[in-house]
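[Q] Does anyone have a clean structure-token version of this?
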Amino acid sequence: MTTLEQVEKLCAIAKISYEEAKVALDATNGDLLEAIIYLEKQGKVTAPTGDGYYNGEITHHHGHHHCHNGNHLFSGLKKIGQFCLKMIRKGNTNSFEVLKGEEIKASFPVIVLGLLLIFAFWVTIPLIIMGLFFGLRYRFLGPEFNNNTVNDAMNSAANAAENLKKSINI
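[A] Here you go.
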């Protein structure tokens, strides 16, 4: 009797559908090597060239349902991990500064600001806004902030807060 494990193994090796793998294994009484030879004779699998071995890489062909052994999951997780590491690296090489006039009152990596905005936004955002009314200004420094559009927007917000404060004091 052919098992699912045998079918999946043959799918991974020969890059064929479940149905084709089951037929080949049934025809060879579950012998994996004989099933591969059987498929070669039918022209469904080409004999290996070069070093003379099959690899277990899985490809997808339209029209056939092929085995999936989790390689795509690991590939996806690897990409997510690489993205996270890239963001952490960028977050640590760029900084967020709090200024009062020309004096820097605080400076910390952008990743700290990002984490505060994610996990404590209900405190962080009001504090940043209140800081504007107490004469604080904010800026980003680092290789990712060579284009000053973000800092220009921060200055505009600080100027708007100053103007609002002046109009209320009149």
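[Q] Thanks! Anything notable?
[A] Residues 4-69 form one domain.
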